[in-house]
């Protein structure tokens, strides 16, 4: 439930205070440890040839001593290896183990030039590191091997990669990142196969020695992550998201987003959130310490979203000790609240789909803008709307995975196979709702352009042959229903304006007609300069820019423009209103929790065996979109209305951070409480009993 990572530096042995660390682990109730063992530096008396022993360890066994100390505390122990760099003697003995750049040069390490960068896909990993992993597991009976930077440091053109790729694909290694290039496409597939082969090899060899132990890769993530998350989820019994801290303009909720992305692949298996106590800007001050408030908020976001905390500290010798009290405070609360943090499943009813194949084959080199920015915009809108939601991997759209969800959101999920489109149709047939944007399903799973959306029958609109953009100075006209004269519920809150701003890119579409409502139409771009020329040339068109349908219990909203990406870019409140309306209208049910009050809150809701919890993370802070948080600012009264699961009643309600009982009102099927103040994080815990 609570992890401690101590990454020793080479000169720690004989110098750092081991007992200090063991005492600290005990004091914070850490029950899992990740400790440096081998790879670039071995911290135990290895017998593997060329495995570089710490020059400071003499005839001691620093790793073994730490393992023994942690075992005395009853902790789970995993060994950390880092295979990405080697010393000169390895280069001299096996020059073919070294990574090679596109110009044929062996790669020196970018930060430690006396070291060499290794090839991840050849005998160095497959043979040498396999021997290292076997030695560690057989000597120390650890519960797992956690390998950092195990999957390579960019393209490698070494003799093994050339030969093996040629043998597998019949092609020379690509020299471009353009996914239109057949060699690049073949390489992406081959590299995945090779890394998963390595993963399976290490896992098999580890389990042959200790059947309870696993190989745990430091890998995984969202749409932009390179390894297929469906396979990652199948291979893992536990996984840790290495999202150590914010850098630059990063919203606080990004740590919660990571948790959701990992859970989409791992389901109910445990997910740890690796957080750094130090600054993670590109300048890499590895011995630094962040503000107390920043660390607390980052971890609260992870915990609220189902992550188990894992602090990571590099160097056993401490220079700046300010972080120790912060982590102790977080972990001590976590320990006290543990019963309510052992989640069985999330109760969210909304799923935000992410798609690695869309990032690879549609996004390419511009995946951040063309794919991820759509997700980030929708994510922000859902947090704004206080909607609990999960993320869903596009290769896991089967009925079983989707059965707890009412609404699926497809934020420009451009690449979907026929089979995936059919799964989405089945979801709708069983009463599920959809919100989709821009080019969703306009491409197949490998990026091939379709003649029409794969989901045109659901959208109520057909592709009309063109994508326009970037558009300047374009607007959307609010239309009343022709028969009733009323505005569609999707426009709630916008009735006092005849028009709002458009997005930046749009797909030209033609309405299929029939039962589809079209509450917004296009006002085309017109000159934005000179000012004398700024008047609309066309005041009104019949070009639909929002399509809303009801099919049985399902509701479908299709937005043929980049509302989500533009929201991330520009953050127009009108677009935020539209996105929130779309989710509310399409969901067509009362959400599992409604939180009313001022401020920005990340709201999540979870079921444990005999309780449910609502997490409220207070994101109302001037530094929410760019860290670090300087000061925690308390948020005042929030009214929380929680749906009580069928077959149970609420026995007791408790606020786990304030440690007090709130005043409760119960109405049939619901419990309502007022949370008087939230500093960083509050958890409303509802003990349930069967009716
Ligand atoms: Zn190579």
Q: How would you characterize the overall build of this protein?
A:
With 691 residues, this protein is an alpha/beta fold. It has 17 helices and 30 strands. A nine-stranded mixed β-sheet has the order 13-12-14-15-22-21-20-17-18, with helices on both faces. Strands 7-6-3-2-1-10-9-8 form an eight-stranded parallel β-sheet. Strand 1, helix 1 and strand 2 form a beta-alpha-beta unit. Helix 8 runs parallel beside helix 9 and helix 16 packs across helix 17. The longest helix is centred in the first third of the chain and has 28 residues. The two termini are 31 Å apart. The protein binds zinc ion (ZN). The site of zinc ion has 8 residues, from helix 5.
Give the distance, in angstroms, between the N- and C-terminal Cα atoms.
31 Å
What's the arrangement of strands in the largest beta sheet?
13-12-14-15-22-21-20-17-18
- Show unreliable segments: none
Given the helix and strand composition, which structural class is it? alpha/beta
Spell out the key features of this protein.
binds zinc ion; 691 residues; 30 strands; 25% strand; eight-stranded parallel β-sheet
Task: Give the topology, please.
Blueprint: E1 3-7, H1 18-27, E2 32-39, H2 62-72, E3 76-82, E4 85-86, H3 88-93, E5 116-117, H4 123-140, E6 144-147, H5 159-169, H6 182-209, E7 214-217, H7 229-235, E8 239-242, H8 254-266, E9 271-276, H9 292-304, E10 308-314, H10 323-336, E11 345-346, E12 350-354, H11 356-363, H12 367-384, E13 389-393, H13 399-402, E14 407-410, H14 418-429, E15 433-437, H15 456-459, E16 461-468, E17 475-478, E18 499-501, E19 506-511, E20 517-523, E21 544-551, E22 554-559, H16 563-570, H17 573-587, E23 593-596, E24 601-607, E25 611-618, E26 635-643, E27 648-655, E28 664-667, E29 670-678, E30 681-690
Parallel strand pairs: 1-2, 1-10, 2-3, 3-6, 6-7, 8-9, 9-10, 12-13, 12-14, 14-15, 15-22
Antiparallel strand pairs: 4-5, 11-24, 16-19, 17-18, 17-20, 20-21, 21-22, 23-26, 24-25, 25-30, 26-29, 27-30, 28-29
Helix pairs in contact: 1-2, 4-6, 7-8, 8-9, 9-10, 11-12, 12-16, 12-17, 16-17
This protein binds zinc ion.
The site of zinc ion (ZN) has 8 residues, from helix 5.
């Amino acid at each position: 439930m609570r992890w401690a990572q101590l990454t020793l530096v080479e000169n720690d042995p004989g110098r750092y205070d081991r007992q200090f660390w063991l005492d600290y682990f005990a004091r914070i109730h850490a029950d899992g440890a990740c400790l440096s063992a081998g790879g670039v530096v071995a911290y135990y008396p290895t017998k593997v040839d060329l495995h570089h022993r710490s020059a400071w360890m003499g005839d001691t066994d620093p790793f073994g001593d730490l393992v023994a100390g942690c075992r005395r505390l009853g902790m789970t122990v995993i060994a950390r290896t880092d295979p990405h760099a080697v010393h000169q003697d390895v280069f001299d003995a096996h020059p073919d183990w070294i990574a090679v750049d596109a110009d044929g040069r062996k790669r020196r390490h970018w930060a430690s030039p006396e070291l060499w960068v290794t090839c991840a896909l050849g005998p160095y990993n497959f043979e040498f590191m396999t021997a290292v992993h076997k030695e560690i597991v057989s000597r120390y009976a650890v519960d797992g091997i956690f390998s950092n930077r195990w999957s390579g440091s960019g393209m490698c053109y070494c003799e093994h990669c050339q030969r093996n790729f040629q043998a597998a694909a019949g092609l020379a290694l690509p020299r471009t990142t353009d996914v239109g290039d057949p060699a690049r496409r073949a390489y992406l597939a081959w590299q995945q196969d090779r890394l998963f082969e390595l993963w399976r090899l290490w896992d098999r060899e580890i389990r042959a020695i200790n059947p309870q132990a696993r190989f745990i890769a430091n890998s995984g993530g969202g749409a932009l992550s390179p390894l297929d998350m469906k396979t990652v989820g199948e291979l893992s019994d536990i996984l840790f998201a290495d999202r150590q801290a914010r850098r630059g303009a990063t919203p606080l909720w990004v740590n919660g987003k990571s948790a959701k992305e990992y859970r989409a692949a791992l389901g109910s298996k445990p997910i740890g959130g690796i957080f750094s106590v130090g600054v993670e800007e590109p300048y890499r001050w590895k011995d630094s310490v962040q503000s107390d408030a920043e660390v607390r908020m980052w971890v609260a976001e992870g915990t609220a979203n189902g992550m188990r905390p894992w602090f990571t500290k590099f160097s056993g010798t401490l220079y700046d000790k300010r972080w120790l009290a912060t982590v102790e405070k977080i972990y001590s609360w976590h320990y006290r609240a543990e019963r309510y943090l052992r989640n069985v499943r999330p109760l969210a009813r909304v799923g935000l789909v992410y798609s690695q194949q869309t990032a690879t084959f549609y996004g390419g080199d511009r995946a951040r803008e063309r794919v991820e920015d759509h997700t980030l915009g929708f994510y922000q809108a859902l947090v704004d709307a206080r909607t609990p939601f999960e993320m869903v991997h596009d290769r896991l759209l089967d009925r079983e995975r989707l059965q707890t969800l009412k609404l699926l959101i497809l934020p420009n999920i451009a690449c979907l196979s026929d089979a995936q489109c059919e799964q989405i149709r089945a979801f709708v047939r069983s009463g599920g709702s959809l919100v989709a944007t821009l080019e969703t399903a306009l491409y197949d799973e490998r990026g091939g352009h379709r003649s029409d959306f794969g989901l045109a029958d659901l959208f109520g609109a057909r592709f009309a042959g063109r994508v326009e953009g970037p558009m300047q100075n374009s607007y959307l006209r609010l239309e009343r229903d022709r028969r009733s004269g009323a505005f569609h519920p999707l426009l709630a809150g916008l009735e006092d304006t005849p028009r709002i701003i458009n997005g930046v890119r749009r797909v030209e579409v033609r309405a299929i007609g029939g039962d589809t409502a079209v509450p917004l139409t296009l006002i085309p771009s017109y000159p934005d300069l000179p000012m004398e020329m700024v008047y609309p040339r066309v005041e009104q068109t019949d070009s639909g820019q929002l399509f809303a349908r009801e099919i049985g219990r399902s509701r479908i909203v299709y937005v043929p423009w980049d509302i989500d990406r533009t929201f991330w870019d520009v953050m127009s409140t009108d677009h935020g209103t539209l996105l929130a309306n779309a989710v509310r209208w399409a969901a067509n049910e009362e959400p599992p929790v409604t939180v009313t009050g001022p401020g920005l809150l990340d709201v999540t809701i979870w079921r444990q065996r005999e309780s449910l919890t609502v997490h409220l993370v207070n994101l109302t802070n001037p530094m929410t979109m760019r860290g670090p948080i300087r000061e925690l600012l308390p948020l005042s009264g929030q009214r929380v209305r929680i749906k009580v699961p069928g077959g149970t009643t609420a026995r007791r309600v408790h606020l786990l951070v304030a440690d007090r009982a709130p005043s409760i009102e119960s109405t049939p099927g619901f419990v309502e409480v007022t949370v008087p103040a939230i500093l960083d994080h509050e958890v409303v815990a509802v003990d349930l009993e069967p009716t």
